[in-house]
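Subject: for your reference before the review

Hello V.,

The reviewers asked for a structural picture of the protein, and I figured it would be easier to keep everything in one thread rather than splitting it across files. Below is the amino acid sequence we used in the manuscript, unchanged from the supplementary table.
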Amino acid sequence: MIKVSIIGGSGLTGKELIKILSKHKEVKIISVTSRKQTGIKITDFFPDLNGLIDGYFINTDDNNVFNDIDLSFICLPHVESMNYVNKAIKNGVRVIDLSADFRIKNTGLYKKYYKVTHKFKDLLKKSVYGLPEIFRDKIAGADLIANPGCYATSILLGIYPVVKKFNIDSIIVDSKTGISGAGLSPTPTTHYMQVNENVMAYNIGKKHRHLAEIEDVIFNDLEKKVDIIFTPQIVPLSRGIISMIYIKMKRWIDIKDVKELFKEFYNNEPFIRFTDNPDLHNVQNTNYCDIYIDGIKESKTLIIITAIDNLTKGASGQAVQNMNIMYGINETEGLK
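And here is what came back from the structure prediction:
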């Protein structure tokens, strides 16, 4: 059995991890931590987990949180997370970090978007970006996985095969996400009266942090630079991301060839599905990414639509998928 801890387990990603891992045949949850909920029974805080887990939240700063652990899922805020990753690795614990702290290899880009200097550059060099459909072989041998961001997952799965194969002029992405993407703690923009019957665009153009990791992956892995404009929006849904991706090509590629490219690239991938009807209801509470492919010949523009659950494939489900790969377990264990 893989003995795991969940550091920062009282948020939405922590809750999803408990839900998935409690049903995983190869995992034993040793501890779940939280500063705010220290000493509180986990199922008192999350009543819907009753019957799945026993025990209490322990303090995140407890000196013993990495003792007798094989793997730690770290679900702490960006910047704070890197300190706990460092502690875990020093204790010989493998890590899947759900923050952005180890996603971006370019430290200048990290500082630009997160306003701090990265403190553990040696660890950053060793980290592997945890997008299984692209980096499976590297994930298998890694001790530190940087779990991708939710938007980055939905966008990279939609653009990577095309960017790898062809010359691209530019990309425009319009993504819509459910309110759970904002986390569990309420803010003025997440109250019911603000979200209901509303659509809110934010970090418009080139301001969203997930754009940094998308560009970093494309540059480091494909040695390409692509101009990407990305505007996310919050819509009145609990969960899910649907991304409309418009890829302006240097030259037109027949849609049949594009579809064949995607099917070949994602051949036998357990969580990639192709659809003619992209719909968030089909992916909510699953680890699937559904992909729709079309295009407009006159403007040499491909239209790729991806749909994922932001908390599952966009966070905790993908983290478990990465764990399965790291330990040589059936990749779908706990996720289907």
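For the response letter, the relevant points are probably these. The domain at 151-310 is CATH 3.30.360.10 (Dihydrodipicolinate Reductase; domain 2). The longest strand covers residues 168-177.

Happy to draft the paragraph if you're swamped.

O.
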